[in-house]
# Entry
Amino acid sequence: MVSLLLDSTQLDVHLSGTEHALSFRKRNIAIPRSQIARVQLTDDAWTWLRGVPEPATLIPSTVAIGTWKFVGGKDFALIRRRRPSVVIELEGHDEFQRVIVTTRHGIDLVRELAQ
# Structure
């Protein structure tokens, strides 16, 4: 399962070995706190997907892991079933405009980022 590590300067999205393989990604995602524009909790992360998976693994309503390309750029998604998730909107990130992650620690993440 994905691990979200937050310190005073950045949020690190650490992927497991399986998540690296399913997302076709070699590196974890590092997000400087200064580039986090907004964080939002959602009960249905599937409604936040936009564009087409490229490269990614998609099994509708079950799992979405990887990069989604759309006209304005790219998002990263790691969604499992219909579980609570966090939508992190970014400004100025060199790779993604949004990161959508299923996590049971969403409330704690939002609270910590508000400080």
Remarks:
- The chain has two helices and nine strands.
